[in-house]
Amino acid sequence: MPTPRYPSLYQINTRVWLTELSQKLGRSATLDDIPDAELDRLSELGFDWVWLLSVWQTGLGAQQVSRDNPEWRREFQETLPDLREEDIAGSGFAITGYTVHENLGGDVALARLRERLRKRGLRLMLDFVPNHMAIDHPWVQNHPEHFIGGTEDDLARAPQNYTRVKSQGQDTVLAYGRDPYFSGWPDTLQLNYANPATQEAMTHELLRIAGQCDGVRCDMAMLVLPEVFERTWGQRAPLFWPEATRRVREKVPGFTFMAEVYWDMEWTLQQQGFDYAYDKRLYDRLREGHARPVREHFWAGLDYQDKLARFLENHDEPRAAATFSPAVHEAAAVITFLSPGLRFFHQGQFEGRLKRISPHLVRGPKEPPNKELGAFYYRLLTILQEPVVREGAWRVLESAPAWDGNWTHDSFVAFTWERSVDERLIVVVNYSPSQSQCRLRLPFTDLANSDWCLEDQLSADVYERHGSELQSDGLFLDMRPWQTTVYALRGQLEKSSIHTNKGETHVEVTT
């Protein structure tokens, strides 16, 4: 399947989705029960990737930790006021084996689903958790040397980071999985990347996964970098990712790696074999609500930006509809998803869901869809299907004052997309709470001798402008707070080939 330069991905909480299907079917649903109509819908909306969260086998030990942890239970109760024990299945990241969970239908059901996705031009992404395994993983008995060991003194000094387990008939102290800034996750055990045998074992896990999907999202991928591992555990580990990604691609050419990564280590992981890295920095700047830091974020080279995964929410972050006001939400979405890179959407985002669902839960709350937000996302997704934003050339623009002393020109974030003289978009967002004006210098050199139409793809607005003015003075803009526009630029005698369906009222991708 050919891959566009700038693809789109849709993340699905698999266990929650199947719980909803089970309620409709009156029996336990597996991956085989996912309707073809749902897969057709994802394809029609223009997605290239489907990421199925939490398909791997988990165990009773980690599940019990999830049920007994009072802090986690408070979070679960806030999400589900009618919380039941069976809603807490344990974290999908506390893995006991990289085989598809028996409750989901096992490996054979995943293989059948993958084939159905392929027929619709959809690639499958799954999880890989490099940092840790479940507290009841078989390696605790068979290969305890794969984990970070501790002493009774470590356990007494830092009980939040160590635990006593039975291994090969003896009491053994092992470390919980963690990152250097937080206490350990008590349903997991930390893998020891200073041990070459552990690295080899995890590479074999990756090689097995690569036979079941087209790509992996690697959880907290920076935690196994040598400098981070040493900061956390006081041991220097050899590099893991360059060799692991090379071996996987040697077996499966074109296999895709996406890194969950923070602490400005995106470029590092891109250089070590990752096709995409989370762009958490853009997300944080959008939440801060100031245009200039957002605009400056796009000054980086395209060799870096093309390999960023842009998002407004995912299973770890709060819901976008709960984080941003409606106007800011739309403005942030236009900036995020009409910039270069992988466009990363999350189940429930289009419907305006407000409650984040923990990966420990297999049921989500019932929430009415936000039809206005759904209509906006439908228009945006329609634009994202156009070749000009999947394969075209992108540029960030600088806005100039509309007159002397016009300070509000600094409120704008603007891009252009171009694939040919007939395929041009001008994306402009007033990312501020103030009415703002500017002159926008366009990078096109053939404007002067024609008159032009600007057709806003997010509304029904159409404007006519003289090319000589556009060429000499720039495009004058006077925009409301948080207003967004996506103009298709056409000569007046031409009709735009990019049209959104204004009749749709909302987007539904799951039922």
Descriptive report:
By secondary structure, the chain is of the alpha/beta class. 32% of the residues lie in helices and 23% in strands. The chain is built from 19 helices and 23 strands. Strands 1-2-5-10-11-12-13-14 form an 8-stranded parallel barrel. A 6-stranded antiparallel sheet has the order 15-17-18-23-20-21. Helix 12 packs antiparallel against helix 13 and helix 16 packs parallel to helix 17.
Throw out a few tags for this protein:
511 residues, alpha/beta, TIM Barrel, 8-stranded parallel β-barrel, 32% helix, disordered C terminus
* Mean pLDDT over the residues: 94
Q: Which value, in Å, is the CA radius of gyration? A: 25 Å
Number of helices: 19
Give the count of structural domains. Answer: 2
**Secondary structure tally: strands:** 23
Architecture per CATH nomenclature, i.e. the level-2 architecture of the largest domain: Alpha-Beta Barrel
CATH top level of the largest domain is Alpha Beta
Structural class: alpha/beta
Q: Looking across the biggest beta sheet, what order are the strands in? A: 1-2-5-10-11-12-13-14
Please give the structural blueprint:
Blueprint: E1 8-13, H1 14-25, H2 36-44, E2 49-53, E3 56-58, H3 60-68, H4 70-79, E4 95-100, H5 106-119, E5 123-128, E6 132-134, H6 139-142, H7 152-157, E7 162-167, E8 170-175, E9 188-190, H8 196-209, E10 215-218, H9 226-233, H10 241-251, E11 256-259, H11 266-271, E12 276-278, H12 280-288, H13 291-297, H14 302-305, E13 308-310, H15 320-323, H16 326-337, E14 342-346, H17 371-384, H18 387-391, E15 393-397, E16 399-400, E17 412-420, E18 423-430, E19 436-440, E20 451-456, E21 462-466, H19 467-472, E22 475-479, E23 484-491
